[in-house]
Design a protein that fits this description.
Helices cover 83% and strands 0% of the residues.
Length: 397
């Protein structure tokens, strides 16, 4: 009974850690218009900060295997939360734009470490259900962050929003400090079935290239999810005549479907298995992109029907994306031996950040030359490529 209680308590702490990971991820875009106005900065300066954050997070993901092996998951999560909380507190106090760049370093490094550490921990010690719910709780944090910042912008300004989010982060760091003894028992925490625990391959059984193909899937996945989230509003406004406010609501359907889909997927993942869910999700995502493309070539006279079809397409695309990231992550310890799996998880986190930094801007360059109508066919190609590569990885491992 006591052991089960510690399992449940530790799982709640893991969920809280992923909420803390999602909290700061979505606030910079909300706060930036007010921040740049107060410092008289151009809109493009946001790219400097996001690129710094992304590169630091990717680098942190690459080295996370060594760090986790040396210090353990609990201390790394604690240190990462302190780093991000301290950086957010610093952002709330800075007098000018250029202070954001050095503060982006600990914010990025902390996010990458805790992302890789928690993904590896849950993949090792909990079932697929909890991996899907883990990423659903990231969505909870990513949803709460803009709400806090929006409330701050309407009262005391963006700095108070960052102050409140930093206080939440530092409070969670206190919880992680108190719970360090639970993390030390992590090798005893296993909610997967006996079959899951015994299915780990022997060292050297998986081909060496598969340890890089797995991470590469995350770069392609970023081309689907992040590429859609970043550019679909522009497609709807510039090509389909929607007002920006209406386009924002439509885009929220996409992200809401991802978050809700992960909680729903968690209810069936133990019965269906990661590989079937990833395959099904990618088929749904590909269907969603094709329906979105079709809705764009319908006559403008079919306005309400076209809009409904567009929303349905994005809901389908979001539901399809929902099981892919957590499903591929949870399958990692079942594809590789223990040491390789730890490295692969770090690489997967790093490649997801690199994909988010590189592919969507490439879409933008192509769209500026050839039109935004090109973006969703590119997303469809990325979804098809991801489906093909995931099946190759399944056969190889």
């Amino acid at each position: 009974m006591k052991k089960n209680l510690s399992h449940v308590l530790l799982l709640c702490i893991v969920y809280a850690a992923f909420i803390s990971l999602g909290l700061p991820d979505s606030v910079l875009g909300v706060a930036w218009p007010a921040m740049r106005a107060s410092w008289a900065q151009g809109l493009e300066r946001l790219g400097i900060i996001t690129l710094t954050l992304t590169l630091c997070s990717a680098l942190s993901g690459f080295v996370s295997a060594r760090v986790l092996k040396k210090f353990g998951t609990g201390p790394v999560v604690l240190a990462s939360c302190l780093m991000t909380g301290g950086a957010l507190l610093g952002i709330s106090l800075v007098p000018s734009f250029w202070w954001l760049i050095p503060l982006a370093l600990p914010l990025g490094f902390g996010a990458g470490s805790v992302d890789a550490g928690l993904n590896h921990f849950v993949a090792e010690h909990y079932s697929s259900r909890h991996m899907n719910w883990l990423h659903g709780f990231w969505g909870v944090g990513a949803t709460i962050g803009p709400v806090i910042m929006g409330a701050a912008l309407s009262t005391r300004g963006w700095s108070s929003g960052y102050l409140w989010i930093s206080l939440i982060q530092l409070s969670l760091a206190g919880v992680f400090l108190i719970s360090l003894s639970l993390w030390k028992k992590e090798t005893a925490v296993a909610h997967g079935s006996d079959e899951e625990r015994l299915s780990r391959p022997a060292p050297g059984k998986s081909p060496r290239w598969a340890a890089w193909l797995g991470p590469f899937l995350y770069l392609v996945y970023a081309a689907v999810e992040v590429g859609t989230g970043l550019w679909v509003a522009s497609i709807l406004v510039e090509d389909r005549g929607l007002r920006p406010s209406d386009a924002g609501l439509v885009v929220s359907c996409f992200y809401g479907a991802i978050m809700g889909g992960r909680f729903l997927t968690g209810m069936v993942s133990n019965r269906m298995g990661n590989r079937k869910l990833v395959r099904l999700g990618l088929c749904l995502a590909l269907a969603g992109t094709l329906i979105f493309i079709i809705s764009g070539i319908l006559p403008l006279s079919m306005g309400q029907f076209t809009l409904a079809l567009t929303v349905a397409a994005l809901l389908l695309l979001g539901l399809g994306c929902a099981p892919v990231y957590p499903g591929l992550m949870h399958e990692t310890p079942r594809r590789y031996d223990e040491d390789t799996a730890r490295r692969v998880v770090g690489r997967q986190v790093a490649f997801s950040y690199l994909g988010a930094a590189l592919i969507p801007p490439l879409y933008g360059l192509l769209a500026s030359a050839l039109g935004t109508n090109l973006i969703m066919p590119l997303v469809a190609c990325a979804a098809a490529l991801l489906l093909l590569l995931s099946e190759i990885l399944n056969r190889a491992t």
